[in-house]
Amino acid sequence: MPHTTGARALPLLAVALTALNLRTAVTGFTPLLDVVGADLGFGPGLYGVLGTTVTAGFAVLGLLSAPLVRRTGLERAVAVAVALTTAGVTLRALSPGTAALVASTVVAVAGIGLSNVLVIPLVKRYFSDHLKAVSSLYIALLQVGQFVAPLLALPVAVAAGWRWAVGLWAVPTGVAVVLWVVVAARAARTDRADAAGPTTTAVPAPARLEGAWRTPLLWSLVLMMGMTSLNVHAIFTWLPSVLVDAGADPASGGALLALFSVLGLPAAFVVPPLAIRLRNPFPVVAVCTALMAVGYVGLLVAPAAGAVAWVVALGLGVSTFPLCLTLVNARTRTTTGSTVLSGAMQGLGYAVASIGPLGVGLLRTTTDGWGAPFAVLFVSLAVLLGAGVVACRPSVLEDQVRRPALVDA
């Protein structure tokens, strides 16, 4: 791949627009559920279905990403993914009824689930010499989109209607589709030129990385991502309820949830450089796990008195999320390895995450208290800590497979 500044400007803009919209179709839609439900005729019973669709879609499409890349190539795969997101968001804004709304949500989530995985190896392919800066950029933009979308949702819906509030996010993703199509065309021309030149005698790049699913690195990152996402989704779902049960008003619970969300932004600029600079970034995992433990203990012992402090601890503690994303590229040598590791980590990780909100809710209902749910969350922190020991060791995926190290795709 070319490494000139001009050749990488287009992929950088495409990565930025894609990252910005990795969560907008989800977080920008949730605040509108009551408004949309009143118009289309559905109630809270459908909210859980839509929420489950998100994590399930992220999981399934994460696992399907590597086979898709082998068939189409990395750039074409992400163009398809972002096109699905754009189509899903547009169709959702035009939905005449509940069935169309659910179907369009499935399409949008499919695109996001693929994009979640594919952005990471694309960063490695085009910006391997600037991993710290570009990793921080795309993770920060993901957090910005996640935080800004719900802030804009209701004001836009009041001013122009819920369909405009839902559909506006199809504009930046539509632009990203055009950019990725151009990038894919350039990549195809480069590949054809390389095939016609003297490089035809080179060893061909591998279509797959045999043995990757038997490596400690892959499974430790799956567990790290799974436990991190489980905690994030449990906090998003149940933090307001914990605070309300302790005597807080619902408005303050929502404000503290917004505080929890925005703390991911500074982490995006701090954690990726540390993950790449440190030979073994396990201290980051240890600090994050300790912060989450402090936050959970605080919510159990004094949920109302120190709510802000506990939420800050939790918001900083889930910085293992950007750490996981960064380690995919820091612990692989090739884009093939990055794609396989990213797909496995996010596919299985989000599958585990989908258990979190449901499990916490069931325990809360059956035990009539928060002790049992928090006990399970503490166990998840222990698993996260153990997985972090293995995932942060200075090792590379390609060196752990049984075959020799492979050339880049």
Automatic annotation (TrEMBL):
Membrane topology recorded in Swiss-Prot or TrEMBL: Multi-pass membrane protein
Transmembrane feature ranges: 44-65, 77-94, 100-123, 135-158, 164-183, 217-239, 251-270, 282-301, 307-328, 340-360, 372-392
Indicate the segments forming the Major facilitator superfamily (MFS) profile domain, all copies.
9-400
User: Pfam family of this protein, just one?
Assistant: MFS_1
> Which SUPFAM superfamilies does this chain map to?
MFS general substrate transporter
Q: Which compartment or compartments is the protein found in?
A: Cell membrane
The protein's matches in PROSITE patterns, at most eight in alphabetical order, are given as: MFS
Q: Does the keyword Membrane apply?
A: yes
- Annotated GO CC locations: plasma membrane
Q: Which UniProt keywords apply?
A: Membrane, Transmembrane, Transmembrane helix
Which molecular function terms from Gene Ontology are attached? transmembrane transporter activity
Q: Which PANTHER family match?
A: 2-NITROIMIDAZOLE TRANSPORTER (PTHR23523:SF2), PTHR23523
The protein's name is CP family cyanate transporter-like MFS transporter
